[in-house]
Amino acid sequence: MRVVRPGIAPVILALAGVVVGARAEVPAVLQADVHAHDGWLHVTARLGDLIDDRTASTIESGLSGVCAYEVSLLGPGDEVVGRRVWTRRLTYDLWEDRYTVSGPERDAVVPGLAAMDSLCSTIDDLRLAPMDRLQPDTEYRLAIVVEVLPLGAEARDRLSRYISRRGDTGRRDVDVDLGSLFGGLFTGGDAGRSSLVHVGRPFRPRSLELRP
Amino acid sequence: MTLRWRLALLIIFATGVPVITGVLVTRQLVREVLDVGLSPQLDAALEAGVRQARETYRGERADLERLADRLAGRWTSGEEADREVFAAAVDPLLASVDHAQLTGPDGRSFTLRDGGRTTAAPERRQGAPPEAVATMVALGDGWHLELRRPMPDAWREDAALIAETLQVVRGLRLQQSQLERMYWLPFLAIFLLALAVGLGAAWHLGQGITEPVRRLVSGTEAVADGHWDVQVATESDDELGRLTERFNSMVRTLEVQSRRLVDLEKMEGWREMARALAHEVKNPLTPIQLTVEEMRARYPGGDEQYAALLADCTRIVVEEVESLRSVVARFREFSRPVELTAEPTDVGGLVRDVATLQRDLKVETEIARDLDPVRVDADRLRQVLMNLAANAREATRDRDDPRLAMTVRAEPDTVVVEVEDNGPGIADDEHDRVFEPYRSGKAGGLGLGLALVKGIVLAHGGSITVGRGRWQGARFTISLPRDPAAGPEDDHA
């Protein structure tokens, strides 16, 4: 089981603050709740402002965006006790005027960006870790990391190809293929991404609300 | 700050200003090009284009839906006979449709028309425009009619282009700052490379300039500290190389002149001493001689034995007085400045004549051909050569094969005469002092011979040194200036 270095959370938070500091809208965790149900620790969370204007503009041009989620349960010494990782792909069909959120569980067609944002901002009843693995009186913390990439890998590849291609005629204006060079540089780009890191307050399993 | 650092800083400044300006201009240029290429106006125009293309697509779909509704109005039932009637009736209306198909409640389908240009569920790349419009209308009793019509090729191409351009503009704008870096960083790298190459070349060039200058400065400081024998290495034949050569030549001349001045001062000192000595010795000689002669003349006689003793003593005193007079005469001769009568002289012939006179020595001569005449006092120079030959004879007195070699050769500025013998030679620590007067190795000698020789050579503006020759004997080397300006007319040592 991977162990997160002690004290790394503040650093991540500081970095995330730098990343999002220049943005008008800052993703935030509005509410995060853990409860026990059916022998599992469940997580329900509400996030806010995941899709900012730039991400929306990119998605509405037909390029796909990606929301990446990582929800972890941290034990003593920031040891990862349980973790769930998944992504949601955000697409818009220019011609059918259709917004789609594709996730591991299902593809959902939503009426607009607001609905897309709402769907992406919801972590609903996520089974995170079996309760019998947790110590009732030990303190645990919930860590939520969300990254919004306005350009998914596919979209970045398309842009990279667009920049690096030499034109449909195959004509080459210069012998040095600067386009390929720049396209290669562009592939590794991650500009525009926004990150959210949330580390919740400690809780003890014994004190958790039991839901039917 | 050294010259090299000043040169380096100058070149850094001269290279750095255009490089930095170039980088800034390039960066600004890239930024402006991107601003133009990704401008909101372009974005709005592309968005309007997409909107227009979408309206066209929707219009096509609405038209197909209206056609489907019209066709549905002619539907009666799913019975085979009614279907055939339906098919015949709607066939003229399907001219604009690529694919028409009936599907029954049991899933069976009946194709009314199939142009083969459309497919039921075409693969479509994200954001790409659809290839066709399609609609499905319910006919009743579980029957459906599906219609497909391809979008015009021109529309598809235009829509794809507009959509892709919009996506690229939006995607690039999202990464504009990264894109700026991506484009101008290679230019920065090129500029930095140029700067590095320029600096390297400048440093190398600076080294080529400053290193000879630094060596010259060191040489000058050494000369200032009294080290006249310094010579600066020359590695090039450019202006700095020629400057270095001239510096070395100048230092050599200064060294020779300096030594000559010292020798002249020493010589003057010795002459002054000789003058004083001659004066002090000469003055009492006559009273002494007169006194002893008076003593002999006034002796009245009577004692034959005493009279004989007195006569012998008087004779000895008178003889010694005469001898002292001779010494005084030589001292006086030495103390007088050397007067020269210089004329263009064939030094080679003069040397050959002197060599011929040395019959009791085995003489070798080596005279350079085509020697130009040199302004010297032939008699004085002959005196010098005879004196050196006499020294050689004296030095080789005990040898079975006494030998003497006399050579004459031309140097760029001087004529060099060498006289060497196969005697025992002169000890190394005596080389500098052998020309001092009163340092004679001969019994009864006054030690004025070599001093006189040196005085004559100095009077010619030349120099004389002694060392070891090819037979390990003494070798005297005389350098006489070829240039009349440095010749004896200006010097009366």
Short description:
The complex is a heterodimer of chains A (212) and B (493). By secondary structure, chain A is of the alpha+beta class.
Overview of this protein structure:
The complex is a heterodimer of chains A (212) and B (493). Chain A is an alpha+beta fold and 212 residues long. Chain A has one domain (8-205). Chain A has 5 helices and 9 strands. The longest helix of chain A is centred in the N-terminal third of the chain and has 14 residues, at 8-21. Chain A starts with 7 loop residues before the first helix and ends in a 13-residue tail after the last strand. The relative contact order of chain A is 0.22. Chain B is an alpha+beta fold. Chain B has 4 domains: 3-37 and 176-218; 40-118 and 125-174, no CATH class; 239-335, Orthogonal Bundle (Helix Hairpins), CATH 1.10.287; 343-490, Heat Shock Protein 90 (2-Layer Sandwich), CATH 3.30.565.10. Chain B is built from 10 helices and 11 strands. The radius of gyration of chain B is 60 Å and the shape is rod-shaped. In chain B, 25% of the residues are buried. Classes of the chains: A alpha+beta (212), B alpha+beta (493). Chains A and B meet through α2, α4 and α5 of A and α2, α4 and α5 of B.
Count the helices of chain B. How many? Answer: 10
**Which class of secondary structure composition applies to the elements of chain A?**
alpha+beta
Task: Please state roughly what percent of the residues of chain B sit in beta strands, choosing from under 5%, 5-15%, 15-25%, 25-35%, 35-45% or over 45%.
Answer: 5-15%
pLDDT averaged over residues of chain A = 76
Distance between the termini of chain B: 49 Å
> How many domains is the backbone of chain B divided into?
4
**What low-confidence regions of chain A span 5 or more consecutive residues with pLDDT below 50?**
1-24, 166-181, 183-189
- Which parts of chain B are unreliable, with pLDDT below 50 for 5 consecutive residues or more? 486-493
Question: In angstroms, what is the radius of gyration of chain A?
Answer: 20 Å
Main beta sheet strand tally, sense and closure of chain B: 5 strands, mixed
- Per CATH, what is the topology of the largest domain in chain B? Heat Shock Protein 90
Can you count the beta strands of chain B?
Answer: 11
Strand order within the widest beta sheet of chain A: 6-5-4-3-8-9
